[in-house]
Amino acid sequence: MSEYSFSQRHLIGLADYSANDILHVIENAGYFREVLDRPVPKLPTLRDKTIVNLFYENSTRTRLSFELAQKRMGADVVNFSSSSSSVGKGESLKDTIRNIDSMKIDMVVVRHESPGVPDFLTRCVDAVIINAGDGAHEHPTQALLDMFSMKQKLGKLSGLKVVIIGDILHSRVVRSNIIGLKKVGAEVIVCGPGTMMPLYIEDLGVTVSHNLEECLEWCDVAMSLRIQLERQEGTLFPSLREYHNRFGIRMEHLEKYPDFVVMHPGPVNRGVELSDEVADSDRAIILDQVTNGLAVRMAVLYLLSGRASGQPL
Q1: Which of 19, 34, 191, 293 fits a 20 to 30 Å CA distance from 72?
Q2: Across the strands, what pairs with 78?
Q3: Would you state the pLDDT for residue 234?
């Protein structure tokens, strides 16, 4: 890519990023992916930066990935847990973040169950805000790492045929992926039970299907989403077994359709979204997604830290 002026201050969602912004992050992530393969996978890029990880929701992969990315780049890292903070005493989010900001921090990585919290924080503090997931709104770094993984595996993004399968209604991952993939020229179908399809999903420029076989025959990438039982207030399908029979990817699908790549943002409910054999097969790049997530988050931190010169590293 030629010299590019990356002017974003925060990462609230991919709705705010242009196609060139997205591709620039992915290009920089390629460099950091190479760094991770070095004997000493570290850079002093953020040596004098202080970053707070502000997680109001449980997380394993995202939180560890951000923390490891920050430490690999030399930042001072502070982890905030709402369960052991003054939030339990009734302190508001606004007061919490202003108190943290008064400690002279540079960046905040925030995950919250309520949509819009990262955007709200940009109006409360001067620090850079990075959205690590806000309710069912967006999860931009997950979508960026998914797109990076697709490009790494298949060599392109424009023209790719991607089907996203499962709990479309409750997923912030699917929204960010749809927005990002459409911007870079991919085709997207969403597939799942009618009870798990949000209203107006087609307004995002995707096709809705309830036929897994047709989707797998069509696609280059099949991304299954976790069934988010904790977010569901009622029963949206008869049983997990029936869901797997209708929308789970099984070995018979890999044998029948030999070309598509299997992805999953994790954690995988084995025997529900994917069979054990599929999850462990060489067609699945789930563990590559985890490693690539570290590289993508290093790229995001680098670009938003103000250290980037405009050209990829």
Answers
A1: 19
A2: 52
A3: 47
Per-residue confidence (pLDDT) for residue 236, from 0 to 100 = 63
**Mean pLDDT in residue range 71-83:** 87
Band the pLDDT of 311: cuts 50, 70, 90.
very low
- Domains of the chain, with CATH numbers? 14-139+291-304 (3.40.50.1370), 141-285 (3.40.50.1370)
Upper half-sphere CA count for residue 55 (Cβ side, 13 Å)? 16
The answer, as to whether pTM is greater than 0.85, is yes
